[in-house]
């Protein structure tokens, strides 16, 4: 008969840790919200559209397998499928079957999609610089890079992060 593991007490956050966590979460949420508002106000793109187009413009031929796109964005397949359908209707992307295997498909950026992201990107990057990079010193940016890489490393292999699970 299997035994159940002993119950352990949660490692509650100290007041300082709780303050840090809540401040970090608020900062992330506010940053996401401001970037989303700016993209929406100044272009015909949502932040989700922009995220998809960024992935597509990061590859030389502007095409990515659907599953790779889902993993890259950390989106569930159903969310991605619905969003891609809307982007196809707007002419920002197209879809193509994968000739190597009959099950997969590709997402391709269209000329209209490329024009849209090229128009939106300069103002977006300026706001990213203003809100995220400019307030920090070079040393703080180096520390934040190291901290971010360490936290991302701790998340490797965490099943909750796999959009297909």
Task: Characterize the overall form.
Answer: globular
Rg from alpha-carbon coordinates: 20 Å
Estimated structural class: mainly alpha
Query: Approximately what portion of the residues adopt beta-strand conformation?
Result: 5-15%
Description:
The protein has helices spanning 15-42, 47-57, 66-73, 77-89, 111-133, 138-155; strands at 63-65, 93-97, 105-109. By secondary structure, it is mainly alpha-helical. It has a domain at 38-135: Winged helix-like DNA-binding domain superfamily/Winged helix DNA-binding domain (Arc Repressor Mutant, subunit A, Orthogonal Bundle). It has a three-stranded antiparallel β-sheet with strand order 1-3-2. Strand 2 and strand 3 (105-109) form a beta hairpin. Helix 1 (15-42) packs antiparallel against helix 5 and helix 2 packs across helix 5 (111-133). The radius of gyration is 20 Å and the shape is globular. GO terms for molecular function: DNA binding; DNA-binding transcription factor activity. InterPro entries: HTH_MarR-typ, MarR/SlyA-like, WH-like_DNA-bd_sf, WH_DNA-bd_sf. Pfam families: MarR_2.
